[in-house]
Design brief:
13 helices; Rossmann fold
Amino acid sequence: MKEHGERMKGRRIGFLGGGSMAGALIRGLLHSSTVTADQIQASDVKEERRAELERVYGIKATDDNEALVRWADVVVISVKPQIVDRVLGSIAAGLGEGDLVVSVAAGVPIEAIEARLPSSARVIRSMPNTAAIALAGATAIAPGSHATREDVEVARALFEAVGRCVVLDESLLDAVTGLSGSGPAYVMLMIEALADGGVKVGLGRDTALLLAAQTVYGAAKLQLETGEHPGRLKDMVTSPGGTAIAGLHTLEAGGLRRTLIDAVEAAATRSAELGEQMAKKLKR
């Protein structure tokens, strides 16, 4: 993370909206020593949330969006998509030359963001997931028309403080939403089902849930750290005539592989539909 600290040295990061994703990013930035608390400020309409942010993270919190934007040189749009239009309109005048705007607002296209900011605004759109709260997020970022290579590296440093980050074309963000954006829900369902299986064969609920969650975590960590194809790692567990192959046969018979592929496709399609609706709304 040392290179991230160098990249973010002297940066002033302002979070417009202090909800759970903003909190995860703030926590990750501080936990990884990417920045210090005096380099972060956040705004929120709720007084109790502002107090919590100041108490937990030692940062300054405000209800003045315009003042926050004038202070910051990296502005993170972390409000609900439904109010992005209103927020962008209120901050456009406060943006300085060279300021970077990073959006975590799901479904809001770069074009719609750029249209409400100064013509030279440097924008990066992101699609993080909820695992960022546990500093194990998966994020894709897409640069806007004026974003520089340095801007992309700053955004990478921001999101790699809470997990892993890839840089893609904006046209692929719906696919990312279907896979990693919605993926934690699929995995939670699998953990719950595995735990149910454990209970069925005699384990206590708490023990079954712990073993199921740790097994999923460990399997994912093994693949990420070894870089091996998951099929090869699967084969390492699968001995001839053994227990794993009996379980895998049941999963294949139940169509697990196809069902997961269909789930990603369905979520990506829905993401594209919602994005089109949001784009139409913002063009009014």
